[in-house]
Amino acid sequence: MAKKGNRQHIVLKSEETGHTYHSTKNKRNTPDRIEIKKYNPMSRKHETYKEEK
C-alpha cells in the first residue's frame, strides 16, 4: 500500500550523459523543480542533475 503524505517520487537526470537517480521530495516545501550536484559514475565527476517529469 502506498504511503500517504506530501512526498512525491522524482527522477533526477544528468544534463550531459543522461544518467539518472531516483529520489523523493516534499511537494509542500519545494514546489519548484530542483537542481542538485551529484556524482556521475559514467563521467566520473560531479555534475548538475535536474528534476525531470
Tell me the layout of helices and strands:
Blueprint: E1 7-14, E2 20-26, E3 35-40, E4 45-52
Antiparallel strand pairs: 1-2, 1-4, 3-4
What does this structure look like?
The protein is mainly beta and 53 residues long. It has a single domain, classed as Ribosomal protein L33 (Rubrerythrin, domain 2, Single Sheet). It has no helices and 4 strands. Strands 2-1-4-3 form a 4-stranded antiparallel sheet, with no helix packed on it.
pLDDT average, as an integer? 93
Give the count of helical stretches. Answer: 0
How would you spell out the order of helices and strands?
Answer: EEEE
CATH class assignment? Mainly Beta
Taking all Cα atoms into account, the compactness measure Rg is 12 Å
Topology-level CATH name: Rubrerythrin, domain 2
What is the overall shape?
A: elongated
- Specify the biggest β-sheet: 4 strands, antiparallel
Structural class call reads mainly beta
Number of domains: 1
The H-level CATH homologous superfamily, spelled out, is Ribosomal protein L33
Strand residue percentage: over 45%
**Major sheet strand order:** 2-1-4-3
CATH architecture group name: Single Sheet
Which stretches are poorly predicted, pLDDT < 50 over at least 5 residues? none
Roughly what percent helix? under 10%
